[in-house]
Specification:
Length: 312
């Protein structure tokens, strides 16, 4: 593949392309440093898994007799913090962290940096929304964001887990099991259509009464940490007391972040596999820049960087 310069359409050398990637990687470092000027009321947290080729320390001789460094394919998560203002609908990436796993230590690094950069209750933070991973829950216990910050378990992930927990009955056909799963999911979704906590809990009781005998695992999954799926109601009360009406869809699930994650996944499919830490940083920064410039024409450097990543 040949990459051409933006202005004169002349071929660019590998060294030039590497320089572009390195420059974007340095922008990524700057993006993740310093004070975050605007603290959003809501922060969504989630991870996406990528692949990179890493050196093993071993060498081998290829078919042409050349000494080569043996590489191995490694999967790792990028942990993303996404700011949301449910009053205006504005959304933006705050920070990200490369993790070893979605473990406590990796999440803690991201949370500590968010707090140090100004994401705190005293500056307007009200709510974190996340999928409830064990590592993240443990990391939250190590970082103090101030009084009054709630944690909301993503209802989308909760309902997805309920669907996975549906077992069906012995002798059911595949179609019958699919219908059972759809019926349980529809009823579980209906639980959250209540207008307040009392009605939602009544809906939960109705769901349990209907499905406890046939699908006990699905009922147990919905009941597990159920209180944390209702944290958004406290935020609505705070907003109401302040005379504000917030968008409920920005308080209950990480759906907005899931849409951003699709852009990361698209970039991963284009690149296939990253070959360096700088390539990873450059690719992530490219996605972030595209999202921030979504309403305006892309800058030449972002288009060129995209070609450089694909050619690397």
């Amino acid at each position: 593949m040949e990459v051409l310069a933006w202005r004169n359409e002349q071929p660019l050398s590998i060294a030039t392309l590497n320089g572009i990637v390195n420059e974007a990687a340095s922008l990524s470092v700057a993006f993740r440093s310093g004070e975050i000027k605007k603290c959003p009321p809501v922060v969504m947290l989630d991870g996406i898994w990528l692949k990179v080729l890493e050196p093993t320390g071993e060498r081998y001789v290829d078919k042409k007799g050349r000494q080569r460094e043996r590489l191995k394919k490694t999967k790792f998560p990028i942990l993303v913090a996404y700011g949301v203002d449910p009053d205006t609908g504005r959304r933006w990436v705050l920070d990200w962290e490369r993790g070893q796993e979605e473990d406590k230590e990796s999440w803690q690094r991201l949370l500590e940096r968010l707090e140090q950069r100004g994401i705190r209750a005293e500056r307007g933070l009200l709510l974190f929304i996340h999928d409830g991973s064990t590592g993240l829950e443990s990391a939250f216990e190590m970082v103090d964001f101030g009084q009054g910050v709630n944690r909301q378990r993503c209802i989308f992930h909760k309902l997805r887990n309920v669907s996975k927990a549906v077992r069906g009955e012995e002798g059911m056909s595949r179609e019958e099991k699919r219908k059972r799963r759809a019926d349980v999911l529809a009823d579980a979704s209906g639980v959250y259509r209540g207008q307040g906590e009392e009605e939602i809990r009544e809906n939960l009781a109705t769901f349990k009464l209907k499905w406890q005998r046939a699908e006990p695992a699905a009922v147990a999954t919905l009941e597990r940490d159920f209180d944390m799926t209702l944290s958004y109601l406290k935020v609505l009360e705070i907003a109401k007391a302040a005379g504000k009406t917030l968008r409920v869809e920005d308080l209950r699930a990480t759906s907005a972040l899931e849409r951003l994650q699709r852009h990361f996944r698209q970039k991963v499919r284009q690149v296939v596999i990253f070959h360096s830490e700088k390539g990873i940083a450059a690719g992530i920064q490219l996605v972030i820049s595209h999202r921030q410039l979504a309403e305006t024409p892309s800058e030449p450097w972002t288009l060129l960087l995209e070609e450089a990543l694909l050619a690397a």
